TrEMBL record, chains A, B:
Pfam families: Ala_racemase_N, D-ser_dehydrat
Keyword Repressor: no
Protein's recorded name: DSD1 family PLP-dependent enzyme
Organism: Pseudomonas bijieensis
One biological process term in Gene Ontology: D-serine catabolic process
Upper lineage: Bacteria, Pseudomonadati, Pseudomonadota, Gammaproteobacteria, Pseudomonadales
GO MF terms, alphabetically ordered: D-serine ammonia-lyase activity
Domain D-serine dehydratase-like: 256-364
Amino acid sequence: MPASIACLDTPVALIDVPRMQRNIQRMQHRMDALGVRLRPHIKTSKCLPVVQAQIEAGASAITVSTLKEAEHCFAAGIHDIFYAVSMAPGKLAQALTLRRKGCRLSILTDSLAATQAIVDFGRQHDERFEVWIEIDCDGHRSGVRVEDDALVDIARRLREGGMQLCGVMTHAGSSYELNTSQALQALAEQERYICVSAAQRIRAAGLACPQVSIGSTPTALSAQSLEGVTEVRAGVYVFFDLVMHNIGVCRADELALSVLTTVIGHQPDKGWIIIDAGWMAMSRDRGTQRQQRDFGYGQVCSEAGDWIEGALLSNANQEHGIVTLSSPGEVAITERFPIGSRLRILPNHACATGAQFPEYSACDASGAVHTWSRLHGW
Amino acid sequence: MPASIACLDTPVALIDVPRMQRNIQRMQHRMDALGVRLRPHIKTSKCLPVVQAQIEAGASAITVSTLKEAEHCFAAGIHDIFYAVSMAPGKLAQALTLRRKGCRLSILTDSLAATQAIVDFGRQHDERFEVWIEIDCDGHRSGVRVEDDALVDIARRLREGGMQLCGVMTHAGSSYELNTSQALQALAEQERYICVSAAQRIRAAGLACPQVSIGSTPTALSAQSLEGVTEVRAGVYVFFDLVMHNIGVCRADELALSVLTTVIGHQPDKGWIIIDAGWMAMSRDRGTQRQQRDFGYGQVCSEAGDWIEGALLSNANQEHGIVTLSSPGEVAITERFPIGSRLRILPNHACATGAQFPEYSACDASGAVHTWSRLHGW
């Protein structure tokens, strides 16, 4: 018989499965309506039952952040996998092994040097790697700029070297710095336009560039048109989190991941409630620190999940969290939150908090809790 | 045959075993000279070979931050284990199971409410729990203040309830905010004096209080006298890190934990070197942010471990790190740090960075690398 929340030891990472399913449906419907394929980024959950729910809802391919995720998902029957981090030459042997087993693993480059390493290794092992070129659409991290001659040079080097160009991809990571629908729509259009332009530039040079892959959760939920785009990658939408809530792309009742915790002490003079969820449970992510509303290490909710306004996880040591209240109220904190009582904490960043746990406790609509393991490491 | 560093996939958590052994010796010798027992806190490494090295050097007991650590170490033959986080009532059954198997597990309280829960559960199961009382010596987190009447009340409640009082303990966590030997010595003396005074207050009430346990790495390395103290708990000294280096209690060549990483790209116009160690490898810990020298997400070293002055991990996404140089130098970064070349990153906080990895690669004096697994989760 499945457990219930009342039986769980704390701290534990809880998934609200009905919320997660609604989040998955919402994104899939949006992509269907915009006429593009959804290739979810599984780096948020690193958890097969979550990925399988995304596939059941309509995703036919996935994005991964490590080759370990690719191996794990391929072993579970998922074939079309895009490893969306620039390929290190030292990881090509592992990628080759996966492809030789029948995995349709595609890889990424954004420089002539990395491309040459792929070509050399591919030729040496008689492997026609499927390769994407990363485009820099907002200056936030990696990628070649659309006006850079290296763009066409990389595409040509791949073709001359016998590799297969899948297409161009970009990630508008700077969307995490925005918080108005106007700015998000503008960045989504910039992401689309620049990536489509990169494909057109390659095509104008007489080279095939079949696919255009874009995506981040905020831009995917803000784009008004995806003309010229073939697929969207997005990850954190599956759980959402306080950073996404501050950006404005989800409601509070869409946050599907929380940490269940127990009250273990008080410092009544300071108004502190001490809980057994410190940074080892929440992660050190302070993603809301620079946003318009700083949630500390997380927003405190009741055990049932109701948001307690003004209650924040203000500070965190390894296994101790300090909860403070903006309005202490009439009842003493030792009575309102007695030792042994439980709370839930909504995280700043679902990808970082999930990674602190070897498994999730997934709570379905009936209240039954299932243990879903997740990947750790590389 | 053991691997060598050259064979390792990246990112990987490297332990420099000779440095670790010197760190262990240094702390053990200091405690021996001060006449107190060392009870290392294993929350830093969560790794049996590291703990065993501490025991071989002279530690006879350990401190843990989770009951999972206690179970793991007890299964490996370690008996005297102090779980140094205030006891949640819901965890008493797990503690009881350990004690019934023969583990000398001691637990912690800092309130009458938590003490009553221990007494009630202990009586119900006919178990005489060994209990410490936490003292607040610097206002940074948990603990009862020495002048608070609750101190003696808790000790009395434990005795009347049939439990065994081990003694008093404190942790001068505010030592992480200091950076002069004068301030550290003063805080170490404050930690000692307050904790010894708490024991004396209990004894003056006619109750036994055999032990006085204090400790944090900075105060343990700064204390001039430990009169009245019976044992010291310290954890991060086993690896040290950039936070400890900023505090001034270790040299750069004593940092024993680093993350080996591969260069996967460049943004030459911005002077960015992109590596495959992002926050998933380093953790989100920015512990040096408020110290006198901010190392970003880490100090960059050569593959061999030589500090590259002015090279920092300035920013981190999940699987991407951005390295910047304060002095770019004559040679282009694409030539000086070509794609596929390797670097090592020293972490801000060894406890947080270690937790991102399922295992360490422990490199011994001969250059051979051994895989040491570590605990994850609760």
